[in-house]
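protein under study:
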Amino acid sequence: MIKSMTGYFKGEVNYQELRCSVEVRSVNHRFLEARVFLPRQFQYLEDSLKKKLRQRVSRGKVDINLQLNGDEIHEERLSVDPNVWENVKSIVKIIEQDTGKEMQVNMADLLQVKGLLAYQQEEKNPEDYEVLFDTALEKGIDGLLEMRSREGESLFKDIAAHIGELKKLIERIPEYRSAIIEAHGRRLKKNLENLEQTYSRDDPRIMQEIGLYMDRTDITEEIERFGSHLSQFDHLLQSNEPVGRKFDFLIQELYREANTICSKANHIEVTRIGVDLKCEIEKIREQIQNIE
């Protein structure tokens, strides 16, 4: 069954007396664009969490917010890397010796030194936090995919209804084949009369002209291709794989065939049906923009 790219989930995960809230939002996007928001001291996990997300989600703009809850928030402390700090002091001392002046170093200057200050979690095993965030991510993805599936069911019903209308419309066109030929015959007769040309209904040249016109206006192939594209739509609607991009291609093909049918037939009733075809196709186009 098709899945939507829109979804939302919010929940909480517990592990080893640790608690983490997870919030996932997803909207439609041409490709997969993922953002993971973590506490500052765990931002090094961002890439690995994104990699796990890509294994289960193929399209959409996805934001995942993982935050510690309860007392865990207050156990975060700011620490100084002793090696970096000794390096900073030695640099300051060298500069003072060279210039003969005492340097004035404030907190703002120190905050600019990369790696000097770092946030750490007190008295907790870092691996426990990694398991906590992994578990929260999996739960968030599960919830997101569940909602995407529900949204996909709704999209399936809407698209299937529009496909049904397209089938009814395209099946009406062949009944105008005789009317199309007769209309051309009348136009040909009127043109000959305007030229004051005498002709016989059985004149080979007239029959040849009508035959050529029939070849130019034959829309049998376009109708067959249109029906084939609709069959592909039916098949893809049942797929469990991401099919959004394939739908984009099929919509373009349906629209192209509808335009060709209208231009080749050159008949008012067929044109009206063609307009209805395009309206239904546009409705489907709007829906598939949100399919994964």
Notes: Residues 7-73+124-147 form one domain. The chain has a mean pLDDT of 84. The chain is about 60% helix and 15% strand.
